[in-house]
Amino acid sequence: MTSLDPVLDKDGVRLTVEDAVATVTLTNPAKRNAQSPALWRALTEAGQSLPGSVRVVVLRGEGKSFSAGLDRQAFTPEGFDGEPSFPELARRSDADLDAAIAVYQSAFTWWRRSDIVSIAAVQGHAIGAGFQLALGCDLRVVASDVQFAMRETSLGLVPDLGGTHPLVGLVGYARALEICATGRFVQAEEAERTGLANLVVPPAELDAAVRDLTAALLAAPRDATVETKALLLGAPSRTYDEQRAAERAAQARRLRDLAGLGD
């Protein structure tokens, strides 16, 4: 499948597909790609709209910033048209509030599906929900002007969009706590040194670097990449012996497939 026409273009999100590569773009640079519940629903829909041919998904933001995080309008009594404001959500039952947050989280979780590899191309600000969206992806290629920050705690909230698990996995508990509790900026050099960024490049080279990484990922057979990603994602929850058993089972499947003995 080759198409440069948008598969989806709504609420600040555009999805395009070209052969095995999908690009999800945040399209509100005038507001530094600030996020809203409508944008989160559009991101979830983008994940549901991916053709089966897609192997790599690139997430990017138009303009100088990847995403400055949650649109502060959510905190006002008025909120967004047709959406419950945060003060209104706070008055709901525990079950209803939990369900609402779970829907919001779905925009941040599908990027780790085992059948795709996701790359966040991050420039400028990636703050709060923007930071968590970048963390939702498998890989992060960042411009040298990047500024990551987890500001939720500074606002009296907690990071609740799926970002805490990958953050701890990447930088460890102590550094993750310090980053979240202080809300400070993490610049490009630290991001690369601590594992938040796979690669740092000048802003003008960001798109080219992502294209090169995408090409390298597509060079490997799809099924081997899928099995490898599943192995690595599951490793933290397995013991060493359980991981070795998972490796054996995955390799047996690959060998049978290569020998034409698969199901």
Give an account of the 3D structure:
The chain is of the alpha/beta class and 263 residues long. It has helices spanning 37-48, 86-90, 94-109, 129-136, 164-171, 173-182, 188-194, 206-218, 222-234, 240-258; strands spanning 8-10, 13-18, 21-26, 56-61, 117-122, 125-127, 139-143, 147-149, 186-187, 199-201. It has a 7-stranded mixed β-sheet with strand order 1-2-3-4-5-7-10, sandwiched between helices. Helix 1 packs across helix 3 (94-109), helix 5 (164-171) crosses helix 6 (173-182) and helix 9 packs antiparallel against helix 10. The two termini are 26 Å apart. The model has no long low-confidence stretch (mean pLDDT 95).
Notable traits:
263 residues, 10 helices, globular, seven-stranded mixed beta sheet, alpha/beta, 42% helix, 16% strand, single chain, three-stranded mixed beta sheet
Percent range for β-strand residues: 15-25%
How is the biggest beta sheet arranged? 7 strands, mixed
Quaternary status: single chain
Task: Count all strands and give the number.
Answer: 10
The chain-level mean pLDDT equals: 95
- Globally, the shape reads globular
Number of helices: 10
Order of helices and strands: EEEHEHHEEHEEHHEHEHHH
Binned, the helix content reads 40-55%
